[in-house]
Structures are given as structure tokens and as C-alpha cells.
């Protein structure tokens, strides 16, 4: 009987191996173009509508199989604009080698408050102002990922005029309505360029329908959108190509940079903010094209607190 059981086990193993080989040869049921890699539903009020109709209720639903493969990401667009290439070289030329290594190889330790956190690199402990340094992260991303962004769809699409009017009024513009109309004209006249380069889509009725997605599952603070639209239209150098990309990218980076929660914000909002910082923003410095500028030292965005060898020498004296 024991021998019969061993034979049954051998036959069963052969059948299972054969079934596995058969399942591995099953072709995917859906084409790879079924989903778009940049169509990620952002947080807050952004939503994305499905591009494919739902299956009929009577249609059989295929069971999950190991033969399914994730859709391949779209190939990166090769950027040949000399102005963008020059800006990339400028960032690399001004980079601080040691700070770049710290940010690309750091380990997140924990939060100090809603603006600062502790990170470790080798034997050193640093305090980082993640709100300040996030500006530099987004500036780099907009330059090095140029024309390779995802898309944040705004639904319902807000009116550029109303947002610009709000910003112009708060900034004390002499003729706020005229200033808002100029903002609409500026964005409407440049709609094709903005959509091609930044996925900023301007509707026919003067609405803003989408924004670039720079970091997956991260959305900027939309309370800053009115100021971004107003400053992008009034402070950016629209007459020179390289000057435009440099100043427009700076305004975008300011818009996307982190803003710490207000003291009276609910605790759950503060907890969600910290999750974004720890799991979205800080990991984006690692293994990415971030060339840390020396200016972050002047801004006190990164401060060394402790070096373990120094501590050992202090303990030896005690």
C-alpha cells in the first residue's frame, strides 16, 4: 500500500507540473493598451473616467491567472530641446556632491514636527526641512522628466478666470477683472504647447482640465492653484525659450512643493500629510535624477545633528 501511495503521489505531481506548464502558455486575455500608465486617479477631488465599457452582466468574468502580465509603460520621450538640455547641465554643474549622496542614499528615521524630519546617512544624523527641499525636488523632476509626466484630471474643471480673479484680488491688483482676463488669454493662447510639454490641458471655455502628475499618487495643494495661474501668466518670461522653461518650471515647483498643515487642521489630515511625506516625497530623492544644490545649506533645509564617531570620542572622555 505504501508503494501504491508513492506512485499516486508521483502521478499527481506530474499532472500538477503539466497543468502549471499549460497555464504558463496561456496568452493574456486583454491587450497591453487596456490601461494607461499615466491615468492614475489622484487624491482629493480628481477623478478619471473609464475608457472602456463595462462587460455585460451575463458575460463570464475570467479568473485571475499567473499568465497575466502588467501593461508595459509607454516609452520615454527623448528630449532634444537645447534649452531643456542646458537647464539639466546647469543643475548638474551646480550640484553639491556630498549633499546629493546624502539625499540619494538616506534612511528615513522619523518626524520632528509637521515641517522637519530626521534622516540618517552612514554614521551621520540630519534634520531636513522637507517643505523647503521639496521645491528643489519638483524643480528637478520637471526638468529631468520633461514631456514624460502623468496626468491629473480635474473634475469638474475650474474656471481660470475665477481662479485668477481670486488671486488678483488678494494681491491687490488695481484692475483685478482685467488682470484675470489677461491670465485667461495667456493660457488659452499657449494651450497646445502647455499640453504637449506639461499635460496642462486648457478647455475651450477657459477651464483648466488637467495638470502634470510628477510623483505617483501625489497631488499638489489646490488652494495654491489661483496664485500659480496668476504668477505663471504675469511673472514668467514668455518671450525667451530657455527663460520661459526656467521661470515656468520654478512657478510649477512652488505650486507642487509641500505646505505644512495648519495648527487647527484635523489630526487625520495631519496623519495623511505625514504619510505622503514619508512614502511619496522622501523616497523620490533616492535613486532619482536629483542633483542637490548647495543652496539647501544656505536655506538650512538640511542640517547635520550628530556624527557617531564624534559621539564615541565624547563617551571615551566620560
Offer a concise description of the structure.
Helices cover 46% and strands 11% of the residues. With 318 residues, it is α+β, with helices and mostly antiparallel strands.
Give a verbal description of the structure.
There is one protein chain. 46% of the residues lie in helices and 11% in strands. It is globular. It is of the alpha+beta class and 318 residues long. The longest helix is centred in the N-terminal third of the chain and has 23 residues. The strands form two sheets. The chain has a four-stranded antiparallel β-sheet. A three-stranded antiparallel β-sheet has the order 4-6-5, covered by helices on one side.
Shape: globular
Q: Over all CA atoms, what is the radius of gyration?
A: 26 Å
N-to-C order of helices and strands: HHHEEEHEHHHEEHHHHEH
Question: For the terminal residues, how far apart are their CA atoms?
Answer: 75 Å
Which bin fits the share of residues in helices? Answer: 40-55%
In total, the number of strands is 7
Strand content: 5-15%
Can you tell me the residue ranges where pLDDT is under 50 for at least 5 consecutive residues? Answer: 1-71
Amino acid at each position: 500500500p505504501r508503494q501504491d501511495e508513492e506512485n499516486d503521489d508521483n502521478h499527481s505531481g506530474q499532472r500538477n507540473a503539466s497543468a502549471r506548464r499549460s497555464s504558463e502558455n496561456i496568452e493574456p486575455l486583454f491587450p497591453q493598451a487596456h490601461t494607461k500608465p499615466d491615468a492614475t486617479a489622484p487624491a482629493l477631488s480628481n477623478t478619471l473616467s473609464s475608457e472602456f465599457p463595462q462587460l455585460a452582466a451575463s458575460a463570464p468574468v475570467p479568473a485571475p491567472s499567473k499568465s497575466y502580465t502588467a501593461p508595459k509603460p509607454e516609452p520615454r520621450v527623448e528630449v532634444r530641446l537645447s534649452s531643456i538640455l542646458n537647464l539639466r547641465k546647469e543643475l548638474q554643474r551646480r550640484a553639491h556632491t556630498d549633499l546629493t549622496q546624502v539625499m540619494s542614499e538616506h534612511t528615513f528615521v522619523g518626524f520632528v514636527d509637521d515641517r522637519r524630519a530626521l534622516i540618517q546617512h552612514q554614521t551621520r544624523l540630519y534634520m531636513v526641512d522637507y517643505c523647503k527641499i521639496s521645491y528643489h525636488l519638483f524643480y528637478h523632476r520637471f526638468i529631468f522628466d520633461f514631456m514624460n509626466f502623468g496626468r491629473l484630471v480635474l473634475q469638474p474643471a475650474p474656471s481660470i478666470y475665477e481662479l485668477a480673479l481670486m488671486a488678483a484680488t488678494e494681491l491687490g491688483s488695481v484692475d483685478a477683472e482685467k488682470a484675470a482676463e489677461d491670465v485667461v488669454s495667456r493660457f488659452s493662447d499657449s494651450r497646445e504647447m502647455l499640453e504637449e510639454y506639461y499635460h496642462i490641458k486648457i478647455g475651450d471655455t477657459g477651464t483648466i482640465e488637467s495638470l502634470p502628475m510628477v510623483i505617483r499618487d501625489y497631488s499638489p495643494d489646490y488652494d495654491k492653484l489661483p496664485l500659480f495661474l496668476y504668477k505663471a501668466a504675469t511673472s514668467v518670461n514668455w518671450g525667451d525659450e530657455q527663460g520661459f522653461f526656467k521661470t515656468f518650471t520654478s512657478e510649477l515647483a512652488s505650486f507642487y512643493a509641500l505646505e505644512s498643515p495648519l495648527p487647527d487642521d484635523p489630526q487625520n489630515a495631519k496623519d495623511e500629510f505625514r504619510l505622503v511625506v514619508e512614502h511619496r516625497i522622501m523616497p523620490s530623492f533616492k535613486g532619482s535624477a536629483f542633483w542637490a544644490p548647495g543652496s539647501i545649506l544656505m536655506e538650512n533645509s538640511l542640517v547635520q545633528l550628530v556624527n557617531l564617531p564624534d559621539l564615541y570620542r565624547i563617551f571615551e572622555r566620560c
